[in-house]
């Protein structure tokens, strides 16, 4: 008969598991530190590489769904524009993508292209008025929306940007919904659409669609919740922000789908929110490295004020020193 484990054995097993977890976490932190140092040494090259790959992804999605212009159908167009975007600032790369999209839609319908141009001009005016710098979201939200994960753009903007970037997210959401309707009605537009029909598409299928308002509100709510909570003075603010933002957005979109009777899109919504949550958590652990177990509170004063400071130290682990002994 096997003997039941004693309390001492259970304590030893618990300590062993905790020690294993600590060792795994230490390895993860050291690996993250090496990656950051490598990035710091090659920052310019890696930034250009990342911008080029992201531009290639967005342009590939736009070409796949809105590839109406024969002049842009050559296989070398997208890689060439991606290389160009890699060496341009964010605003320049966004302008290249917008021009690419406008030329594609011009081959489909002149009215649709003009309508999109007006929407882009208004979006730029709003972003300039509110000093939103990430104008690339105006087009990139469309690419993420075609990949069924538009909420990812709002999550990343809220975690890595300022409060003013919500304008770019809202404008990108409006543009992406309009382009979705253009894609769904491309056959009708290609058979004789004019400026009036494109305006009718915007009026009836976009502004006359209740899901449009729910979608834009959900994108904006996700941004506002995540940005507000991540800037609050609470423990694990980023994790709480990511979780709360995804929950709020999921409830809004779920209510919208139930209200308009599109229950078939709920599984797609769940997968999109799961991906958005995982990317948000990964961003937290890559970008932020605070040790909430060692919070310090300091109080001091001068001739005019009392100061109350809450200091959250960053996680730092010393690199392991490897000693090599030569045996003869």
Question: What does this protein look like?
Answer:
The protein is mainly alpha-helical and 328 residues long. It has a domain at 110-316. 70% of the residues lie in helices and 4% in strands. The chain has 13 helices and two strands. A two-stranded antiparallel sheet has the order 1-2. Strand 1 (296-301) and strand 2 form a beta hairpin. Helix 2 (43-66) runs parallel beside helix 4. It starts with 6 loop residues before the first helix and ends in a 17-residue tail after the last strand. Mean pLDDT is 83; it is low at 16-21.
Summarize the structure.
The chain has 328 residues and is mainly alpha-helical. 70% of the residues lie in helices and 4% in strands. The protein has helices at 7-41, 43-66, 77-86, 90-108, 110-129, 137-146, 151-160, 166-184, 186-190, 195-206, 210-230, 237-260, 266-287, and strands at 296-301, 306-311.
Order of helices and strands: HHHHHHHHHHHHHEE
- Alpha-carbon Rg, integer: 25 Å
Q: Mean of the pLDDT scores?
A: 83
Which secondary-structure class do the elements indicate? mainly alpha
| Helix-residue proportion | over 70%
List how many beta strands DSSP finds: 2
- Biggest pleated-sheet summary: 2 strands, antiparallel
Q: Choose one word for the global shape.
A: globular
Strand order, largest beta sheet: 1-2
Low-confidence stretches: 16-21
Distance between the termini: 52 Å
| Count of separate DSSP helical elements | 13
Strand content: under 5%
């Amino acid at each position: 008969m096997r003997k039941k484990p004693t309390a001492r054995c259970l304590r030893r097993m618990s300590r062993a598991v905790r020690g294993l977890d600590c060792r795994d976490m230490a390895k993860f932190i050291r690996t993250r530190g090496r990656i950051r140092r490598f990035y710091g040494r090659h920052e310019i090259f890696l930034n250009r590489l990342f911008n080029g790959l992201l531009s290639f992804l967005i342009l590939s999605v736009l070409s796949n769904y809105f590839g109406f212009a024969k002049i842009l159908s050559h296989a070398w167009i997208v890689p060439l524009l991606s290389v160009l975007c890699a060496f341009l600032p964010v605003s320049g790369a966004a302008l290249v993508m917008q021009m690419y999209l406008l030329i594609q839609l011009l081959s489909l319908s002149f009215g649709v292209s003009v309508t999109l141009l007006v929407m882009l001009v208004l979006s730029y005016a709003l972003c300039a008025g509110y000093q939103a710098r990430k104008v690339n979201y105006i087009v990139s939200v469309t690419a993420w929306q075609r990949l069924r994960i538009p909420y990812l753009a709002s999550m990343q903007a809220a975690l890595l940007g300022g409060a003013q970037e919500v304008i770019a997210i809202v404008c990108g959401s409006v543009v992406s919904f309009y382009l979705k309707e253009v894609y769904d009605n491309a056959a009708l537009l290609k058979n004789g659409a004019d400026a009036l029909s494109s305006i009718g598409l915007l009026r009836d299928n976009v502004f006359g669609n209740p899901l449009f308002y729910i979608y834009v509100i959900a994108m904006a709510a996700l941004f506002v919740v995540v940005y507000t909570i991540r800037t609050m003075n609470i423990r694990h603010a980023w994790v709480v922000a990511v979780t709360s933002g995804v929950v709020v957005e999921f409830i809004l979109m779920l209510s919208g789908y139930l209200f308009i009777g599109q229950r078939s899109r709920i599984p797609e919504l769940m997968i999109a929110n799961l991906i958005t949550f995982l990317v948000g958590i990964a961003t937290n652990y890559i970008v932020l490295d605070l040790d909430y177990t060692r919070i310090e509170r300091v109080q001091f004063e001068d001739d005019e004020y009392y100061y109350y400071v809450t200091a959250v130290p960053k996680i730092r682990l010393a690199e392991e020193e490897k000693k090599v002994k030569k045996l003869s």
